Each structure stands twice: as C-alpha cells, then as structure tokens.
Amino acid sequence: MTAPAMVLLPQDALEALRAELAALRELVQTVLRQQSGVPVLAMSREEACESLRIGKSSLNDLIQSGELPTAEVCGRRLISVDDVRELLRRKTAEPVRPLRTGRPKREATGTTATPTRDEVARRRAARAGRAV
C-alpha cells in the first residue's frame, strides 16, 4: 500500500481550513456540553454573538459601553449567561423607537400628494404651451 500524496495548499486556504476546524471543534464542544446536562454558566464572545443574533462589532460596542460585563478566566474572555439574560431584560424594557422607512412625509400644502391624471395632463400641456 502506498502512502497518500502530500498536497501543498496556499497559505490563505490553509488558514481558512484551520478556522473551519476551530469552529467545528467549538461546535462539538457546545453540543457535548448541552448533552452532558452540566449547566452552562458562561459563553465565549462568538457564542454570545450567536445567542443574541448580533455581529462581533455590536457585541464589542455593548462590552465597551459597559452594558455587557465580561470576565477573564484562564486567559479567555467570557460572558455570563445571566448577564446576557439581564441585558435582554433591560433592552426589552426600553421603549422602542419607531422605524423610519423611506423619505420623511411632506407637509400638507392643500393638494394631494399624488396628482390626478387630469392634473398631470394639464401640467404637460402647460409646459408644451397648449391648452387642454
């Protein structure tokens, strides 16, 4: 039996594979923790992002502002599950700002926002210099 041929990968592909492997290890560890019945007390930044359904920069903003405390344990920055729950309680208790969609409404000037067909025809005729 012959040994498998060694394949050389570009550095960026190798780094991507390492990142995927690390993510898979983390996923396996998370699943094993959940199945073990041991309560989860803290989570990593990545797990907090996933739990809150937010990006890393949004999580970092919460941490920097002091809204979400962290603790360093054995060189790892961890976030308490209770702190995440408390953050959600506080955020859901805050009044919700109405969403702004589209352009701001124009002030009423006595005319309708959308002209009728007749008005459009009159305006076009006036621009062309003929009467309707």
Q: Any idea what the radius of gyration is?
A: 29 Å
Task: Estimate the mean pLDDT confidence.
Answer: 83
Q: So how many helices?
A: 5
Q: What spatial order of strands do you see in the largest sheet?
A: 1-3-2
Q: Mind summarizing the main beta sheet?
A: 3 strands, antiparallel
General form:
elongated
How far the N terminus sits from the C terminus, by CA atoms, comes to 94 Å
Approximate helicity band: 40-55%
Stated plainly, the CATH topology of the domain at 43-95 is called: Multidrug-efflux Transporter Regulator, Chain: A, Domain 2
Q: Structural class of the helix and strand makeup?
A: mainly alpha
What is the C-level CATH assignment of the domain at 43-95?
Mainly Alpha
The unreliable regions are none
CATH second-level architecture of the domain at 43-95? Orthogonal Bundle
Number of strands: 3
Strand content: 5-15%
**H/E series, N to C?**
HEHHEEHH
Write up this protein.
This protein is mainly α and 132 residues long. The protein has a domain at 43-95: Orthogonal Bundle (Multidrug-efflux Transporter Regulator, Chain: A, Domain 2), CATH 1.10.1660. The protein is built from five helices and three strands. It has helices spanning 11-36, 45-52, 56-64, 81-93, 117-128, and strands spanning 42-43, 71-73, 76-80. A three-stranded antiparallel β-sheet has the order 1-3-2. The longest helix is centred in the N-terminal third of the chain and has 26 residues, at 11-36. The mean pLDDT is 83.
